[in-house]
Amino acid sequence: MKLNRLGEFGLIENIRRRTPVGRDVRIGIGDDAASVKNRGDSSLITADLLIEGSHFDLRWTSLRDLGHKALAVNLSDIAAMGGIPDYVILSLGIPAHFDSEDIDAFYRGFEELAAECCVALVGGDTNAAEKLIISVCVIGHSSAKPVQRRGAKAGDDIYVTGTLGDSALGLKLLRRDRRNSTRKGHPAVTLLARHHRPTPRLAAGAQLAKKKLATAMIDVSDGLLQDLGHICRASAIGALIEAARLPLSPAYRALAGKEGCGDALSGGEDYELLFCARRQNRTQIEKLSIRAQVAITRIGACVPADRGIVVLDPSGKAVPMRIQGHDHFKKARLSV
Amino acid sequence: MKLNRLGEFGLIENIRRRTPVGRDVRIGIGDDAASVKNRGDSSLITADLLIEGSHFDLRWTSLRDLGHKALAVNLSDIAAMGGIPDYVILSLGIPAHFDSEDIDAFYRGFEELAAECCVALVGGDTNAAEKLIISVCVIGHSSAKPVQRRGAKAGDDIYVTGTLGDSALGLKLLRRDRRNSTRKGHPAVTLLARHHRPTPRLAAGAQLAKKKLATAMIDVSDGLLQDLGHICRASAIGALIEAARLPLSPAYRALAGKEGCGDALSGGEDYELLFCARRQNRTQIEKLSIRAQVAITRIGACVPADRGIVVLDPSGKAVPMRIQGHDHFKKARLSV
């Protein structure tokens, strides 16, 4: 059904009906504000605004994947603080040519991940817009002191969860040769799945915070080097990254070709956790990796701030880095 | 300075510097998520998405006013639950032609109201966009049971704070004759101030909740009749409104002409509180009006659901109403 027949209130009612009100959601969708139970004495809050043409392209992103991703990138921010997500607010600007099946597909992707991560959709706003706009705000809590970007010291190890570069390389291949890279069985399909449906590393983040193992943490959204730069600035340290240690997926290795580890270093949208930890905790980190069911790889070490960020290339040559990555204004107008 | 020279991180740093971290904000702008102290055992959460061309027009809205309004409409939702706002998240999609002075003006308007209402800006997201997009999420608490839309009973009185219709009539005059309606001393200027800088009725809302005087409440954003319709549906009641009782400002009376109370009934964007209360509490409501320093006017009564919503015109003639007001999808594509 076209949205202008269903109407805003019909749409809200549709969303409300499929969103159960749980024990901790005292007032859910359909009033002026939601009322939710607080867990613990403080809350974590994060928000992301995703705009069609700038953050996603509906020519190659399904609405169901987009629903997943819009929530995942926010959950990833909560994971990066070592937090546990509880509630989510979703506001949409919807183009007139959308119909209610489109919105259903989006909500299905969104809700599947919400259910998996025990996050309750409690409210939001719906509007007409020329392009799809997705605004998500997640509220969570932390059972321990949240892990900030500051706190790392020279001598700490640097770790990353999962693998790096899959998302950026997948997107690059898709743009270059859409038909081939989406062909069943092609390794690019694995990379693209990582681009479209990133996994927020909630278990690893929460356990790192609870056990006080991470001295500083961030999620890799703008590219490893740029996000490492945020930790370095906030912690007043430098960093030495060993390129040979970067965790690369088999698909990435098969397809990266002469681009090597470029996308792993600065590709962006990995949504893996990048964190620092004291050297004496290496065994504990290994154990945590097994418990959280995600690979955790030591990729370098924190050094004094005056050394900046240096990447040791596979031959052992030190390459000082000018931090690159994603800046929403500096990159000449992006794709908008 | 142009934003593409300042860059996203320069902009975030500018915002961070002018946003003090208070006692209750443990981690503010500049990390993956904010960490804030919870007040009470539950939180109120509300969000609004404002899109250029649909919700505002920069030809006649200053960025400073827009900053005020973007926050005010969210605070109004918290007021409508009888809550107290604490924290705000602000995400912006910013057109490339904006410069940092534009954004400064917006933040100035936003922060002035935030300071006045003791609300702390704790985070958000900034992006490039073709048109200005403003996404606000406010988190608050309630010192009493939040007042919902349901809860009113036939026989209850119906009240509204402040005056109705100013905002819609002001906008109409502005569109009709911009030069004249913005001329200093012209009564339309008073109306337009109400359109551009609505006042969230926080004190009245919180006191109505605390004293358990409101049986149901909503803020008038889509027009009195439409928002009354929400209360009627949620409370399973009908309503009888006496047009002669509608609170109209002197400027409205001077300028409404033959349109009479049309804009007061269904104009929208008043951001006044519409609520129901037991008849025996009339004296208490009067006292509360003085304490909260806002006019509160009794405009009708709740009746059984099967009577629907009826407006008694000034001559005493009953006019059954088809609820009109704002629907973001049904109004043929709005102004987008």
Structure, explained:
The structure is a homodimer of 336-residue chains. The first copy, chain A, is 35% helix and 24% strand. Residues 331-336 of chain A have low confidence and may be disordered. In chain A, the strands form 3 sheets. In chain A, strands 8-10-7-11-9-12-13 form a 7-stranded mixed beta sheet, with helices on both faces. In chain A, strands 3-6-4-5 form a 4-stranded mixed beta sheet. Chain A has 2 domains: 3-141, 60s Ribosomal Protein L30, Chain: A (2-Layer Sandwich); 157-320, PurM-like C-terminal domain (Phosphoribosyl-aminoimidazole Synthetase, Chain A, domain 2, Alpha-Beta Complex), CATH 3.90.650.10. Chain A has helices at residues 3-17, 63-80, 100-116, 166-176, 178-181, 187-196, 202-210, 224-235, 250-255, 262-266, 282-291, and strands at 25-27, 34-37, 42-51, 84-94, 120-128, 133-141, 157-161, 216-219, 237-242, 273-277, 296-304, 309-312, 318-320. The longest helix of chain A has 18 residues, at 63-80. In chain A, helix 2 packs parallel to helix 3 (100-116) and helix 2 (63-80) runs parallel beside helix 7. With 336 residues, the first copy, chain A, is α+β, with helices and mostly antiparallel strands. The two termini of chain A are 29 Å apart. At the A-B interface, helix 1, strand 2, strand 3, helix 2 and strand 4 of A face helix 1, strand 2, strand 3, helix 2 and strand 4 of B.
